[in-house]
Amino acid sequence: MKKTYKIDVDCANCANKMELAAQNTAGVQSATVNFMTLKMNVEFEEGYDPNSVMPEVLKNCKKVEDDCEIYF
Amino acid sequence: MNKKQKKMLLRIIAASVLLVAFHAMPLTGPVRLLLYLIPYFIIGYDILIKAGKGIKNRQVFDENFLMAVATVGAIALAISEPDGDYTEAIAVMLFYQIGEWFQSYAVGKSRRNISELMDIRPDYANIEVSGTLQKTDPDDVETGSIIVVQPGEKVPIDGIVTEGNSVLNTSALTGESLPREVNAGDEVISGCINMTGLLKIRTTKEFGESTVSKILDLVENASSRKSKSEDFITKFARIYTPAVCLGALILAFFPPLVRLLFLNQSAEWGEWIYRALTFLVISCPCALVISIPLSFFAGIGGASNAGILVKGSNYLEALSKTGVVVFDKTGTLTQGVFKVSGIHHNPIDDAKLVEYAALAESASSHPISKSLQQAYGREIDRTRVRDIQEISGNGVTAKVDGAEVAVGNDKLMEALHVEYIPCHQVGTIIHVAIDGTYAGHIVISDMIKPDAKEALARLKAAGVQKTVMLTGDAKSVATEVAKTLGIDETYSELLPADKVEQVEQLLEKKTGKETLAFVGDGINDAPVLRRADIGIAMGAMGSDAAIEAADVVLMDDHPVKIAKAIKISRKCLRIVYENIVFAIGIKLICLALGALGIANMWLAIFADVGVMILAVLNAIRALFVKKL
Questions:
Q1: Alpha-carbon gap: B224 to the closest alpha carbon of chain A (Å)
Q2: In a 3-state reduction of DSSP, which class is residue B81?
Q3: d(CA B320, CA B311)
């Protein structure tokens, strides 16, 4: 399943770090962050519920960049 | 400016004023330190807090952490010296924040600019409820509803005109203000602006499926498909910061220890730690990381404003390397409007022959059969036709009024063992055989688009090495068109499947990094569009199939736009390379100078912030593509 989320982050490098953090979250097959449109595309692995994966993604993103937000 | 940016601007101004004021005052000792710490905390408190959180989360290569180490280190060095310079540390923090502020402002501004360029999203749809117009959210309009579009309004949803006539301005979609006349019964696509009369439109799609939504979706998601340059920068950024930090660590400890242990000199710790801190200031890869996606974003935005939709940064990159352009002839270089231009060798009446041919071809959507039907001019009575068999690329056979009718090219006649008379006229020759006997042929010819010749000349001027034309048409037609337009290679009489094979062969033949672009009208060449390095679909207004299949979509059907698309991509990629070389180059030079002790922190902060600002400004240039 693929979903797109609106995000908020201030710097481009932080967006890249968020991308890496999201990719390394369990249940996430692939993730891309588009800094210019402030969007995160997440493809979930089968059997995972986006509603339970996304809080983990946000938690991991907050670790690498405190000043970020994902709206889900 | 948003709230965050305003607040930051105030902090920047306050810190700068204080810094200048304290510099002018004759201060000494601890008072001096305490006073200088005020602007430092005003400008840097959030960085210090973030750095603290970074340590907690084990993010040592976080810019905030590095900036905090560099500035706290510089202040500590200044304290250790009798007449230390605090301004440097504060200035580093100040300029870093100015850089961040500028970046946020510039990116926000170009985000807005680009979305303004693509301002085709309709805000409402008018629905008539008991005699009065009601503004409704286009998302809530069901398929089949009647919407009213007044002069000056945007057509919000695709549909068919049921009442009224008007002139539409398509410039928001095609980049050209060529007015289009519409009357009752005509299809209209969303995103056009109604200029003159009131239109009532029966919607044929939901808003989400309408052209305007699809285009917006496509452009907004385009920069998510990242190019190789972006991947390179992302990888580079990941190793750059740790590498520079390691360099700083080595610089801080290695030379002093060597001096102390082997050269019997004084260690000069202060000097080497200062140089190491200078390193840390240059360690942020921001300039690179922001300017590359920004360039692509601006390039894609500029292109869409010119009526060229590029589906991803990767395609923009591939487009810039185009070495071979392969054209489908019909609908791309020619108008695809076939007209009967001659009827020869027919024992029966001209009209009768056309009637048989039109009826036999009645099930086909091929442009040729359309023109036959047009020449026939009357309603097709489908009950007269049975057993239609389409022989791909060759023609059709069918039973018309009980007679066995075969309509097609030379190959079909040969397959049916019908002796045919070849034609000397250039065009598509449609032979007709009735009950196995030759009944003459109809010549249909296509018109070359008026700007096709110029389009090819511009491609050559833009540096395309080879142009190729593929067509299912007869060799004589193909050669004639190729000669008129100046095309290098022509392959004719191809079946749809042959086109894929031909493109594969061309792909094998090409050398080096150049890419092959295939240009088609997107109607029946989807497999070829996918197989080529870059599939360019033309005349996409209203054709979903073309938007789906291609990598680059030209909203109108002018072949000159291909050269423009290539030029836009080249400009964008040149900017990308400029930024990569410029930013990495300056940083490396400053690192080297810093290590040698020639560059101080002031220069380091230029390497960080100055380069970023210049790279961002350069990136925004990719937006301006009007004159290309």
A1: 5
A2: coil
A3: 14
Q: Are B469 and B490 in contact (CB under 8 A)?
A: yes
Tens digit of pLDDT for each residue in A4-26? 888 988 888 888 889 999 999 99
Q: Hey, are the CB atoms on B224 and A11 less than 8 Å from each other?
A: no
- Strands (E) in B151-305, as ranges, are 159-163, 166-169, 179-182, 187-188, 193-194, 199-203
Q: What is the pLDDT of residue B9?
A: 92
Cβ separation B224–A67 shorter than 8 A:
no
Q: Give pLDDT, residue B568.
A: 94
| Residue in the block written with tokens 């809530």 | B140
Q: Are B223 and A34 a contacting pair at CB < 8 A?
A: yes
Q: What phi-psi label fits residue B175: left (phi over 0), alpha (psi between -120 and 50 degrees) or beta?
A: left
Reference B269, options B281, B278, B279, B259; nearest CA is B259
- CA–CA separation, B572 vs B569, rounded Å? 5
Q: What is the CATH number of domain A2-71?
A: 3.30.70.100
The pLDDT value given to residue B177: 66
pTM of the model: 0.79
* Beta strands at B515-520 and B534-537: parallel, antiparallel or unpaired: parallel
Q: Whose CA is closest to B128, among B105, B108, B147, B152?
A: B147
Question: Cβ atoms within 10 A of the Cβ of B321, count?
Answer: 19
Structure tokens at B365: 């959507």
Question: Which residues of B are marked as active site?
Answer: 328
Domain architecture of chain B: domains with CATH: 125-211 (2.70.150.10), 295-334+448-570 (3.40.50.1000), 335-447 (3.40.1110.10)
Chain B interface, best mutation among A66, A67, A68, A69, by max B CB count within 10 A: A66
Amino acid at B417: H
Q: What pLDDT, on a 0 to 100 scale, did the predictor assign at position B118?
A: 64
- List of residues 6+ apart from B388 with CB closer than 8 A: B360, B362, B363, B396, B397, B398
CB contact under 8 A, B62 and A12: no
Low-confidence ranges of chain B (pLDDT < 70): 117-119, 176-177, 522-523, 540-543
Q: Locate tokens 């921001």: which residue?
A: B286
- Which two structure tokens, joined as six digits, stand for A57? 């993604």
pLDDT confidence of residue B450 = 85
| pLDDT score recorded for residue B307 | 85
* SS3 sequence of B353-401: HHHHHHHHCCCCCCHHHHHHHHHHCCCCCHHHEEEEEEECCCEEEEEEC
- Longest distance between any two alpha carbons in chain A, whole Å: 33
8 Å CB contact between B192 and B161? no
Chain B CB contacts of A5 under 8 Å are none
Q: Where are the beta strands (DSSP E) in B51-112?
A: none
Scan for tokens 């029946």, then name that residue: B524
- Considering only the beta carbons, identify the residue of B54, B104, B237 that sits closest to A10: B104
| Closest residue of chain B to A4, computed from CA coordinates | B221
Q: What ipTM describes this predicted complex?
A: 0.84
Please tell me whether residue B619 adopts helix, strand or coil conformation.
helix
Q: Which amino acid is at B401?
A: D
- In the numeric block, the tokens 């989400």 are attached to B208
pLDDT of B14: 93
- Which amino acid is located at A61 in the chain? C
Say yes or no for a CB contact (<8 Å) between A37 and B223. yes
Q: How close does chain A come to B111, measured CA to CA in Å?
A: 7
